[in-house]
Each structure stands twice: as structure tokens, then as C-alpha cells.
Design a protein that fits this description.
This protein is an alpha/beta fold and 109 residues long. The chain is 28% helix and 28% strand. It has helices at residues 53-63, 76-84, 98-108; strands spanning 2-7, 25-32, 35-43, 68-71, 88-91. Strands 3-2-1-4-5 form a 5-stranded mixed β-sheet, sandwiched between helices. Strand 4 (68-71), helix 2 and strand 5 form a beta-alpha-beta unit.
Length: 109
């Protein structure tokens, strides 16, 4: 399972960013058997887009083969794009670290 978390600087110790479309980075974690196996920090190609940032970010997640997106909130258009592609969205507060958010999702799933 591949999980993308909206982050400011990225990494497991960063906090979940509340803005999906304009998040500066995504922390992408590959999870196998309930354990985080690898982590990459990648820039969000939609972060500085004049418009359509959420759709660009959603398409990026699709292209990366993401199964789950964790962020504070999603706009309606990006939400539709993710939903149509079968990507699950999970909301997490800005006070939650990336690793905590991933582990919380894994406990619930």
C-alpha cells in the first residue's frame, strides 16, 4: 500500500499539512504488512500553479500509484478526481505528525 501525506518539509517527523492542493511536499510511504518500508519526500507539482492546484496534486498522486491520501482537507474537485480513481482520503489534524497519521490510518483500516 502506498500512502501520500501532505507535508510542509516532508518526512515522518513533519506534521500533516491542512492544504492538499497547495502543500509544498508529499511524504510518500510504502507500507507492507502494517510496517512502513520506505519513505520518499517529493515536491508537489501543483503547489505553485496559478489555478487547478488540487487537480494537479490529485493527478500526481494517481501517477505515483497512491492508494491513500492523508491531509487536513481537500477541495471538491480534487476530492472527485481522487474518488474516481479509487484513492481513499483520510483527514488528519495539523497537530499530528506524519508517522502518527499513517499508523492511525493503519489501525482503522
Amino acid at each position: 500500500m502506498r500512502i501520500a501525506v501532505a507535508t510542509i518539509t516532508g518526512g515522518l517527523e513533519d506534521f500533516v499539512n491542512q492544504h492538499f492542493g497547495r502543500t509544498p511536499t508529499f511524504t510518500i510511504a510504502d507500507v507492507e504488512d502494517g510496517e512502513i518500508k520506505s519513505v520518499r519526500v517529493v515536491p508537489n507539482p501543483g503547489a505553485s500553479a496559478p489555478r487547478g492546484a488540487g487537480v494537479q496534486a490529485a493527478q500526481f498522486c494517481i501517477d505515483e500509484g497512491v492508494d491513500v491520501v492523508i491531509a487536513g482537507q481537500l477541495g471538491p474537485t480534487s476530492s472527485q478526481v481522487l474518488q474516481k480513481s479509487g484513492i481513499k482520503f483520510v483527514s488528519a489534524p495539523s497537530t499530528m505528525k506524519v508517522e502518527e497519521a499513517i499508523r492511525a490510518f493503519l489501525r482503522e483500516d
